[in-house]
Write a structure and sequence with these properties.
The structure is a single chain. By secondary structure, the protein is mainly alpha-helical. It has seven helices and no strands. Helix 1 packs antiparallel against helix 4. The longest helix is centred in the N-terminal third of the chain and has 42 residues. It starts with a helix and ends with a helix.
Amino acid sequence: MTELKNHIVTSFDRDLEGIQAQIMKMGGLVEASIMEAATSLETRDVELAEKVRKGDKVVDALEEVLNDEAAQVIALRAPTASDLRVVLSVMRMSANLERIGDLSKNIAKRTDVLVQVPPVGDTATSLRRMAREVELMLKDALDAYIQRDDALALDVIARDEDVDKMHNTLFRELLTYMLEDPGNITACMHLHFIAKNIERMGDHVTSIAEQVVFMATGSIPHGDRNKSDETSSELGPQHIGNGV
């Protein structure tokens, strides 16, 4: 009986290592997609944008494989409460990573449109800086996962407020450009959607960090996130055309 139990534990550990390897591979691809999408916009590189769009299919495929493997582990290994928590958290993390990949693809799609019009100030560089902050948050969230470091994960959660503030600042800049010159409206609309996509990436990274805290402590961080996105309460780009 002891030998059988040890075999089951060893098999579970091996399966869990395989799932963890998949989530880290997926995370690495998504990290790269964030910066490549932002860089393609800043450098007006349509080939790099195309690479991001094609790469999203790989991320989607990895999520399917990971979910299948996780489901098999649950069905075949009957993990204990703590082990089940890990498997379920990884599945939630993979869903957030897949969504971030989708948002990177959306940015890359808009790059094809924006390269056909003149740049609007230094907004593309600002978007790249914002994306860089989200990429670093994701890197730290994945490191926190590997190390089961809830303190680092909580730090990632707190940094989402910085991303929101960057988004708010950029929104106001775009609003100014649109009011100064109606010819900027189309480009600024696309740039605002890109900024919103990056802000949403930060939310998904925060969700990943929350799952790390859950794995490490057994509980999700309490209280509402301190969101600093003020744009929803201000004059949105959808109204600009009516006032210009």
